[in-house]
């Protein structure tokens, strides 16, 4: 059943705004293609120009290191041409309506990756574009980050099913994307946030339905140590996102006690690991954990490249991986 389902997966022409819209087999297929490209290009030294003759428009309302580098170098490595557009080049809905921008880009590029403030901007682009749109980050979701995290954990543990991930920090867009994907892959989720920093209520409601549907555990807590207890993976993110700088002093006070340390890990599963999507601040996780062998953050950062490549190949081609299917 699993093999047949994976063989039937066809993502060509699909937009990728949220993992909410993708089922387990589709997520697994993207990760399989990503792992295959990593094997062929990084480990075997092959040239795989699957996107030769194609172009991507990269709209960045918010700056980024990993999203820009992974997409730009990844698309080029696959033989395509990336076009980087900052807010100075394109200001959605200001100099030109988002509708007109979507239609213009549809005639000039094969795909768009947009890193925006408002998720509604992505939905507007997707509605009016005739080419696929990828969410490079929005205020509500960050799905391409989760693809990298899932591949990193699959590589490290050999499979995902049965793992328990503890999120310790802000109820933000990265957490929302975990909430829309982990249950589908058999991963339990424990969330610890300070009061007032819980994830979006609508996302929480949908995540609870997914957890019930797939038989996984989903817990919402305020105690970081309770979240870490017996967990396989400890995850955090910035406490002060772009656009929240004026709230920094209050946020640092509210998140006191949420720093991940070896003491946090002392109650986790014996083989616990640590993830952070970067950039990292010392108040979120101390150096002892961040630079320890338990930290997978730099593999995680590299996998941003292989997973965005895998996603773009899935959306733009009919490519079939050569390596055996991954165990999930």
From TrEMBL:
Ranges where the Aspartate/ornithine carbamoyltransferase Asp/Orn-binding domain occurs: 161-314
Family: Belongs to the aspartate/ornithine carbamoyltransferase superfamily. OTCase family.
Matching Gene3D superfamilies: Aspartate/ornithine carbamoyltransferase
Protein name: ornithine carbamoyltransferase
GO biological process: citrulline biosynthetic process; L-arginine biosynthetic process via ornithine; urea cycle
rRNA-binding among keywords: no
Assembly and binders: Homotrimer.
Stretches assigned to the Aspartate/ornithine carbamoyltransferase carbamoyl-P binding domain: 14-155
Annotated Gene Ontology cellular component terms: mitochondrial matrix
Keywords: Amino-acid biosynthesis, Arginine biosynthesis, Mitochondrion, Transferase, Transit peptide, Urea cycle
GO terms assigned for molecular function: amino acid binding; ornithine carbamoyltransferase activity
Location of this chain's protein in the cell: Mitochondrion matrix
EC numbers for this chain: 2.1.3.3
InterPro entries: Asp/Orn_carbamoyltranf_P-bd (IPR006132), Asp/Orn_carbamoylTrfase (IPR006130), Asp/Orn_carbamoylTrfase_sf (IPR036901), Asp_carbamoyltransf_Asp/Orn-bd (IPR006131), Orn/put_carbamltrans (IPR002292)
Functional pathway: Nitrogen metabolism; urea cycle; L-citrulline from L-ornithine and carbamoyl phosphate: step 1/1
């Amino acid at each position: 059943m699993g093999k047949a389902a994976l063989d039937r997966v066809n993502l060509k022409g699909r937009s990728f705004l949220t993992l909410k819209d993708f089922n387990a087999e589709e997520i697994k297929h993207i990760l399989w293609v990503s792992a295959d490209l990593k094997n062929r290009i990084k480990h075997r030294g092959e040239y795989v120009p699957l996107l030769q003759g194609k172009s991507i428009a990269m709209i960045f309302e918010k700056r980024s290191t990993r999203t820009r580098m992974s997409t730009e170098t990844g698309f080029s490595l696959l033989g395509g041409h990336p076009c980087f557009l900052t807010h100075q080049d394109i200001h959605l809905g200001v100099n030109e309506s988002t509708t007109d921008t979507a239609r213009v880009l549809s005639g000039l590029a094969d795909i768009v990756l947009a890193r925006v403030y408002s998720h509604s901007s992505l939905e507007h682009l997707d509605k009016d574009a005739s080419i696929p749109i990828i969410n490079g980050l929005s205020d509500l979701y960050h799905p391409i980050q989760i693809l990298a995290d899932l591949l990193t954990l699959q590589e490290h543990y050999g499979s995902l099913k049965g793992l328990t991930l503890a999120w310790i920090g802000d109820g933000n867009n990265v957490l929302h994307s975990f909430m829309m994907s982990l249950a589908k892959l058999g991963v339990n989720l424990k969330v610890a946030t300070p009061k007032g920093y819980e994830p979006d209520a609508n996302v929480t409601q949908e995540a609870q339905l997914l957890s019930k549907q797939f038989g996984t555990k989903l817990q919402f807590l305020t105690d970081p140590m309770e979240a870490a207890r017996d967990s396989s993976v400890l995850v955090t993110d910035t406490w002060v996102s772009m656009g929240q700088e004026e709230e920094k002093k209050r946020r640092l006070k509210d998140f006191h006690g949420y720093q991940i340390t070896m003491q946090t890990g002392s109650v986790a599963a014996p083989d616990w690991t640590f993830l952070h999507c970067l950039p990292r601040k010392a108040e979120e996780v101390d150096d002892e954990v961040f630079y320890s062998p338990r930290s997978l953050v730099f593999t995680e950062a590299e996998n941003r490249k292989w997973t965005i490549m895998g996603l773009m190949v899935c959306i733009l081609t009919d490519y079939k991986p050569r390596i055996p299917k991954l165990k999930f």
